[in-house]
From TrEMBL:
Domain Fumarylacetoacetase-like C-terminal: 26-225
Protein keywords: Hydrolase, Metal-binding, Pyruvate
Name under which the protein is recorded: Fumarylpyruvate hydrolase
Alphabetized GO MF terms: acetylpyruvate hydrolase activity; metal ion binding
Originating species: Sulfitobacter delicatus
UniProt-listed Pfam families: FAA_hydrolase
Length: 229
């Protein structure tokens, strides 16, 4: 019994299945590729840190994402995505893979000008990262069918022009390392999503642009930027 109708369960498509993956929370790893850390002017020696997006920021791809309000610098960040199927706290690195249900590829969409302002003023990044439709994610591939989450090409193109291209092996903190670190701060639960950081080459998009990309052997996405909201 609720005083209002409960929110709809957010979920993502699963490759080859009608059943969907329910999304509980979306965690994002910040600054996890060396070249991207350098291009953003940050220090590679920092330990992993995390920010969040709401569950309903997750969107199936292909999709159209409206150009969001309050920004003039709307950026893409291609990322490997991990879906947690078994919860736990203080997970050991050697046990992390037992907690992963599947993997995919997605985009951490960012209002970069708002992020820059938040950094300058020492404020949280929520307004820059946790807005509507900010986590388009391709259908999830069950982990049994995933060759590796530690190596493989990750890429993104805008209107067919390659903008980001790297290898998962370039991560500063591997999936095992950053998932274990995350579980020391919060208890992970089935349905949690982890967006694992982006390589160098991030940039701005405009209405009408088409973003394609993915992680080889895991998933590919296509996102069209719609009119300004």
């Amino acid at each position: 019994m609720y005083v209002i109708a409960p929110p709809k369960q957010s979920s993502l498509a699963v490759q080859g299945r009608e059943e969907r993956f329910p999304v509980r929370r979306v965690f994002c790893v910040g600054r996890n590729y060396e070249a991207h850390v350098l291009e953003m002017g940050n220090d590679m020696r920092d330990p992993p840190f995390f920010f969040t997006k709401p569950a309903d920021a997750a969107r199936d791809t292909p999709c159209t994402v409206p150009y969001p309000p309050l920004t003039e610098s709307f950026h893409f960040e291609a990322e490997l995505v991990i879906a947690i199927g078994k919860g736990g706290a203080n997970i050991e690195e050697a046990e992390v893979m037992d907690h992963i249900w599947g993997a995919s590829a997605g985009i951490d969409l960012t209002r970069r000008d708002l992020q820059a302002e938040a950094k300058k003023m020492g404020r949280p990044w929520d307004w820059a990262k946790a807005f509507d439709n900010s986590a388009p994610i391709a259908p999830i591939l069950p982990i049994a069918d995933v060759a590796s989450v530690e190596k493989g090409r990750i890429w993104l193109a805008v209107n067919g022009e390659m903008k980001q291209e790297a290898d998962l092996a370039d991560m500063i903190w591997s999936v095992r390392e950053h998932t274990a670190a995350l579980s020391r701060g919060v208890t992970l639960a089935p349905g949690d999503i982890i967006m694992t950081g982006t390589p160098a080459g991030v940039g701005a998009v405009e209405p009408g642009d088409v973003l394609t990309g993915g992680v080889d052997g895991i998933a590919e996405f296509e996102v069209t930027i719609g009119p300004r909201g």
